[in-house]
Amino acid sequence: MPTLPAYAPPSDETELLLKWIRRARESQMSHYDMADLLSARERRLGWLVTVLTAFVGTAVFVSLSVPPASIEMRIFVGLVSVTAAISAALQTFLRYAERAEKHRAAGARYGAVRRRLEAVFAGDADARDGHYLSSIRTELDRLAEDSPNVPPRVFYRTQRMLFMDRPHRRDV
C-alpha cells in the first residue's frame, strides 16, 4: 500500500495554491463519499423497515381470519414486530438522509472553492482580486467549521483512491 507523502509547509504562493487545491479536492470527495455511504445505509434500513412492517401487518391480518396460530408463530410475529419498531426508531434517530444531505452540500461547497482555486492557479485574472488568498482562506476556514465531520476511515480511503489516481465520478 502506498504511503502518503510527509507534510511540508508551502514555500511560495504557487505551492500554497496547489496544497489548497489538493485539500479542497480531498474534502470534496470525502464528503461525497460519506454522503453516498449514509444514503446507502438509509436505503438498507428503509428496506428492512418496509419488509418487516409489511410482514407484521400481513401476519396480523391473517391471524384475524384463521384459527389462532401456534404459540411459536405468535412469538415469532411478536419478535418481528419489535424488530420493525426498533428499526424504525433507529432510522429516525440516526437521521441518515439528513446527514447525507449535509455531506453532499459540504462536498458541493468544497467543489466550488476548488474550482475557484483552480481558476486562480490557471492565471484567470478575474479570479485574482487584491485579497484573493485571504478571501479563499476565510472561505476554507468557514467550510471547515460548518461542515460535518468525515470519519477518518472514509477520509483516508478517499485519500488513498485519489493518491492512486483512480478516477472519481464526482471529480469535476
UniProtKB/TrEMBL annotation:
Ranges annotated as spanning the membrane: 45-67, 73-94
Pfam families tied to this protein: SLATT_4
InterPro entries, per database record: SLATT_4
Domain of life according to the entry: Bacteria
Alphabetical keyword list: Membrane, Transmembrane, Transmembrane helix
Keyword Iron tagged: no
The keyword Transmembrane helix belongs to this UniProt entry's keyword annotation: yes
Domain SMODS and SLOG-associating 2TM effector: start-end pairs: 28-122
Protein's name in the database: SLATT domain-containing protein
Gene source species: Paraburkholderia antibiotica
